Structures
1.
Amino acid sequence: MIGAPYFKKMTIHLENGNKIVINAPKVSDRNKYIQRVKLNGVEYNKTTLSHFDLIRGATLDFEMGPKPSKWGTGEEALPPSITDPATDGSSLLPRPMRDLTDRSEGGGDARELFDNSSDTRVTFDTASPRLNWRFAEGPEKVRMYTLTSGDGSPAEDPKSWVLKGSRDGRNWTVLDERSGESFKWRRQTRAFEVKHPGKYSYYMLEINENNGAGSTTLAEVELLGYDDVNRFFGAVDQLIRDYKQSGELKEPLAKQLSRSLEQAGRQEQKGRTEQAVKHMEDFLKHLNNQGMKGRATDRARKKLAAEAHALIIALRR
Ligand SMILES: [Ca+2]
Ligand SMILES: [Ca+2]
């Protein structure tokens, strides 16, 4: 959201090295109303800025004055709804991390560790059990994990462990290591950030030490991450097909969009994220090309733009 600035000049340094510069040379106690705003030198009338506009770095110039103006009062200036107007649930924003193990069965005998209930638990007859999970549908990047302690003796709680990942189930890479951990109460869920996340089909939690019992108990394990970027590619591709079929998207725009998406996908597979993003920016340019105005309905255009932005954000993660 854009609000009136307090300072004549402010620079925000983003983590990615880009910066956002905010200029309001005439701001004062008297000149507290926004008269005009320019984003990167271009007149800007909306009251919100997208994440996309900001991550690339931006310059915002505010012209301030003593009286309220008409700036930001147009219908198009209203902030967009945070949730997507579509009700199919496919593009609800924002997209938080979620438990990747919820999508498939992969826990084998330790099913009760993955049943989303801390009332069910698994007790291993050893102080140093190993837990395995396999993502059957392909590798996933786990960013965080949670462990929920059991409801029995604290002596059965894990204390030191290593999380490993593998692409083939044979060669393992250490992703995270913890020691001297404790659970303060029964069925406590603790979250841990994976120090070295990567895309793996196999995950193993090697508990090396518990709190002194001969057996180890856990109630629940979660492996958290973002939806795979391929899902976003798939979603945009499906939208193009659907709108083509319903007649809401016509050639040659449909072909241009498909081509940009395809090229973005190819670059992504080669690990060239920035190239992939550039192709998605071309996708948006095609979509907003005035010459193609009659080639897509407003609804299709908005939805395709929203999904393309979501894909760009997913690519940059
Ligand atoms: Ca779960
Ligand atoms: Ca459970």
2.
Amino acid sequence: MKSGERTPFARLDRTRSEKTRTMKDRCLNRVDALLCTMAISISALLPLQAGHAQTPPRSAGTIAWAQCSACHALKAGAPNKVGPNLFGIFGKPAGKVINYNYSPAMKAANIVWNDKMLDLWLTRPSAVIKGNKMAFSGISDAKRRKVLIEYIKHSGK
Ligand code: HEC
């Protein structure tokens, strides 16, 4: 009899081994899927960590800056948007960017943009200069504000 194929036992055996194989295959597929997911997550995280290690204020700053970029440019010579171009704003008095139409409140404000003032401003603009027209409620996360201030400080350098 050739490889016992026609005996009921042999058929049973084959069925069993097919079942086992299928389960094993499924397991392997699952492991593959898991490994794939892990590999993808790791590869997604690696560039972030690498970027972080090299230039901490910038990479986190870029992310934080996304909240401002809709209304502000941060490049030398870039046009004003809804808000003034903030290039080089650090250390300057408020309301002095040329060709920008400030609110009367902002024009009259007698403040200089240092760490402390920017931190207060970014916490709650309306609390620093009443009647200003920056439509932004503020950032409650102190760490995020700090990152953002560093980013503005180092812009263009
Ligand atoms: C919805 C638009 C908008 C967003 C978003 C916004 N700003 Fe403004 N910002 C303005 C406007 C408008 C002014 C001018 C306010 C005025 O004249 O009263 C301003 C003014 C400023 C000033 C004062 C500039 C000067 O010349 O004295 C700073 C600093 C500033 N914004 C920083 C930021 C930062 C940092 C962010 C991101 C967290 C941000 N703004 C988000 C619209 C915006």
3.
Amino acid sequence: MRIFQPLSASGIMIRCTAAALAALTAACCMCGPVSASASVATSTADDTVKTTDAKAIFEDRKSLYDEISTVTQIPWYRLAAIDQYERTLTRVHPKDRKHPDRTLGIFIPSTRWAGALNPNQEDVNPTSISVFSGIGLDGDGDGKADRNNDTDLLYTVAARLSPYGHAADDFSIGLWSYYQNTRAVQRVMQYAKLYETFGKLDLFDHAFPLPVKSNYSYRSTFGMGRNWGGRRVHEGTDLFANYGVPVRSTCYGVVEIKGWNKYGGWRIGIRDLNNHYHYYAHLQGFDKGISLGDVVTPGQTLGWVGSSGYGKPGTQGKFPPHLHYGIYRDTGLNEWAFDPYPLLKHWEMEEKRSKKKTRS
Ligand SMILES: [Zn+2]
């Protein structure tokens, strides 16, 4: 397992020497965001809610957001964003954030809920919780502040944010005060934008990054060595295709990075609601309609397959044209690459199957 340099916050860490440049060969891309270690985290899990109950789950969540929104004046899409962000944290830290089954993903540790010095860490009495400077509140009016009750949880968070005000900047300051973490603020604001734009919670559809009817080929290359830029491993899958084949978003998400990188060339990074960062590199160019901070939908064109990268801005043709596609999971502190190959296979198959269905 290894840690990847935060892409979004501090940009790409560059390791490049004259010797590495001289060692450049044109054989095959070994590209992607830079890292300098040798092992990789693997996961084939897709966090998408895809059960027959999905609709009911989304409805339950939405009614809770609406209820607390009415009381606190915080728009539902911001409450939804906080809840979803916390849900992604629980997925990567299940042991630290253990809680009973419930509708919401928000987690507040007992020390914070009941107060660090409270001798009763399971305290549900709002008065004694307040005496010990705990933050737990009674949201549903049953006289108890229960940190495993959905309404109490959401109300407690919302009540802490509401006094900051409802302009986006004020709300961000409230988030900063609550999480003390810039990444948390960025994620919640990204998610809020997605929910506000689409007006629904069900935003987990996927698409294959290239049109399935185009000519392309790919195989699993995750974790292989690279031959350019020092000791790095390949954190993604190379999809070989001709120049100009459209590169499409694989998910609903927000454009987090767009521009030139020495390794990835013209590259774009999209953040999704599972807190995955989708990285597309070596593009020929970007679709004119795509700007930093925009929301995108699955299948939307981001740019075109090219061979940019491995040098100063505009460098191209150092290797055959292809899309380098990688996925990184944000753990709240770091980002970890995982192998996108099984997901690519899955999305490709689903799309081919649905195309067949619409034809018949
Ligand atoms: Zn690659």
